[in-house]
Each structure stands twice: as C-alpha cells, then as structure tokens.
Amino acid sequence: MLRRLFLILSMxxxxxxxxxxxxxxxxxxxxxxxxxxxxxxxxxSSPTMFTSFDGVTVASTPVxxxxxxxxxxxxxxxxxxxxxxxxxxxxxxxxxxSNSYYLDAxxxxxxxxxxxxxxxxTGNGTLFWGNNGNIESSAASWSLSVNSNNNFNxxxxxxxVPVQGNPPSPFPSFGAEIFSYGVYSTNSPPGTCPITGNxxxxxxxxxxxxxxGTDRNISGVTDSQGNSYTPVIYYNNTNFSPGNQIIWSAYAxxxxxxxxxxxxxxxxxxxxxxxxxxxxxxxxxxTQPAGQPDSTAENNAYGYAFFNNGxxxxxxxxxxxxxxxxLVAANNFPWTIGSGTIYDNxxxxxxxxxFYHVNTSAGPYDPGGTGSLYNTYxxxxxxxx
Length: 385
Description:
Shape: elongated
Helix content: under 10%
Largest sheet: 7 strands, antiparallel
Number of domains: 2
Structural class: mainly beta
Number of helices: 0
Number of strands: 25
Strand content: over 45%
C-alpha cells in the first residue's frame, strides 16, 4: 500500500449557542485547526477504505485559533474508516494537557466516481471539547476530500444548534494487575487464582502465562461469575524449549469482586520433569466485546543484533487505538523495554517481564529494548481494540 501525504484543514465557525454537559463553563466553542500527516488506502487502484492515518500533528499553517489556539505541533489521532461507513466515532481527536477535542462524525454523502484520484465525503456530527474537566459540545457539519495531488482537506463548520450527548468512549487503556504468580519449580501451578482487584462489567480480563521446563499448556480458563474466556495465542518457543507462552482473554459481562471471586486455570496433562511458572492476570479498559484480538506477535532469539544487545518481538496492529499486553522471558539478563511499560518483573529461574503499550495508530509495533549479549529471550504480545 502506497503511503500518501495529506494536509487537513478544519475550520470552526464561531458558536452562537452550545449545550453544557456536566459542570461546563460557558466560554463558547469555535475557531480553526489544521492537520498534516500521511494516510494509506487498502488498494491504490480500487480503494475501498482508509487503512491508516500516521504521524498526524496539528499544523502551524493555518494557525489554530479560538478554542484550538496553541495546539500547533500536538499529535492527533484519526480513525481509519471504510468508504461505506455511516459514522466514525471519533473521526479525530487531540489531547493537550487537561483539554481534549473529539469530532463524532456521521457521513451523509460520498462521491466516489473519480476514485482513486478524487474522493469526497460530507456529513454532520458533534464536536466535543473537554475543557479542563468541563465538557462543551456543538453540532457540526463537515466535508472531506482527497485529490490527485495527494492533498487531504477536511472542512468543518459548527451550527448554532446545541446538542445533548456524551463524548466518545475513551480509547483502550491498561487497567491493573489483579493476580501475580511466579515460582522456580513446582508440580502444582495454581488452578484457582484469587484476584486482588475488582473487575467491572465492560472491562477485559487477560491471562498471560509461561510454563518453563516441560511442554505444558493452558487448556481452559473460567471464573466464578461465568465470564467466557477464549485462547488468544499459544507459543511453543525454541530458545526456552520446551517452554510455552500463553494468553487467554474474556470480556467481562459479569463483575468480579476482589477477595470473593476467583479466576480458574486448567492446565494440560503434566509431563515428568522440572517445571517453573509465571502468571499475570490484568484488566484492560474500553476494549470492544467482540472481534478480539486485533493482532498477536511471537519471537525468540539471541540477545544481539549487529553486535549490539537487542530484543525484538515485532508485529503489526490492524486498527488504530489498541493496547498491547505480553511477556518477555529472558535467560540470564533483565530486559529493558524499548517501547512500552513493564508492570511486573519477576526473577525466578529466569527473568519474566510483563509489559503493556498503548498504540495510537495502526502499523508495526515492537516492544524492543536491550539486554545482555549472547543470551536467549522469548516474547509474545496481543493487541486488543
């Protein structure tokens, strides 16, 4: 897919009226804002959708004015969408300090007659401004066009019609670790896992585990409230052979209570020999209930690259705004993550490091990082949207 540069121009007319949501101050909502970055089609000869918007920032020309004053240079997130979509929530968002800006967009017409040279859309929607904890909103109309010079133009004007509603749901994020277990050697890994944090309806539960020493897998996960778990990835790696790395996941339709409910892991039949285990159970916020995961990755190798110490677990996410969670197991060295956050670091027979990363755009993701030369490592991750 060919990557194309774009320039987006968003003009906000002065707002005559608005509806305050929550404890909103009546400061008005309007101004202009522009964006620059790049986009890709799914097919350059017969495109049907925008598959990514990358490296988007608020442009300095035109100078952002009104409610958007001072935002030039800020990163922006655009949601990829199909030409047949009827709404995009949100079409774009910008966050700066305690302020956030979202446009929920409805597509009312699309002109695709001159594809791939020209494509244009018009629509309406709602603009939300999170102003230091106060939410303001206004109705908006907009038009978007792409031309053969690879220019991308987005024109928006607000109306004087106040609207009711709520801003778009927040993007996926890491919640908390609610169970942790690591042991050097045992023939009895935990089947019943008492959780240390509450799980709300709508959160995602992710079980990340590694068995090192025999060829043992997780054959099932349940919990005491009947949430439905599915396997996400099982990786029988070679550098820790016969070590195994596993992820299962559930979207919580029933809440779990710390100290009362449990998550239950069923392991496959045990082989004779030595065993070590590392387990982390976490929650994620604001992921979709179906169509998960977005993507997965697995890799193992020696900790070197062109004589520089390095760790790599490369993969590619499909959707924008995903959160990746996973595990890197390192033999004889503590791994330092390159792109993400290590939230639990265990040292038992080897180093087990559980990590997460929020991906604001679709495309390549690799937690990467550094460690000790000439030692082995293995890693997995799964991205949820």
